[in-house]
């Protein structure tokens, strides 16, 4: 932010007082109330629980998606901020064997499943994934849980 203000100052003297109207705490890399890790911002719900589809819709309304966990660092960061089960962006459609992320990429490596998970596949309904400190477990998408949204951080 300081570099950006310096560039504006040298470009046009009208921007000299920009920092008075856009302080850094209002113009940060993540929306207010979101947590940042590297180049991502995370909204960690703490008040109220939703079904998986409603959680997904909440994230979409905030220009984000349910979290896609790509690393142990990311998983640990989220677990540090939430003490209970939370929806992640991983699901399996009814009649399908493959687990898919909300961005339509396949699961790939399964290293975060809890012991015994994902277990038997139930072909009659969509299944979604909840995460907690112990790892991932499949759950009915109609269960209520907290959720985590993810979006790109605004980095200059």
UniProtKB/TrEMBL annotation:
GO terms for molecular function: carbohydrate binding. Residues 37-150 form the C-type lectin domain. PROSITE patterns: C_TYPE_LECTIN_2. Transmembrane segments: none annotated. Keywords: Disulfide bond, Lectin. It comes from the Eukaryota. This is C-type lectin domain-containing protein. It comes from Scleropages formosus.
């Amino acid at each position: 932010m300081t570099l950006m203000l310096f560039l504006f100052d040298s470009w046009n003297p009208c921007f000299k007082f920009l920092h008075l109207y856009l302080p850094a705490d209002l113009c940060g890399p993540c929306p207010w109330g979101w947590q940042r890790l590297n180049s991502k911002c995370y909204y960690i719900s703490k008040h109220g629980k939703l079904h998986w589809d409603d959680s997904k819709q909440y994230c979409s309304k905030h220009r984000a998606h349910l979290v896609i966990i790509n690393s142990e660092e990311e998983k640990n960061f989220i677990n540090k901020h939430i003490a209970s089960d939370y929806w992640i962006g991983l699901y399996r459609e009814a009649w399908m064997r493959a687990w898919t992320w909300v961005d339509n990429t396949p699961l790939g490596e399964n290293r975060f499943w809890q012991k015994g998970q994902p277990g038997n596949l139930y072909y009659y309904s969509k299944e979604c994934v909840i995460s907690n400190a112990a790892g991932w477990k499949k759950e009915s998408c109609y269960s209520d849980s907290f959720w985590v949204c993810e979006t790109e951080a605004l980095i200059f």
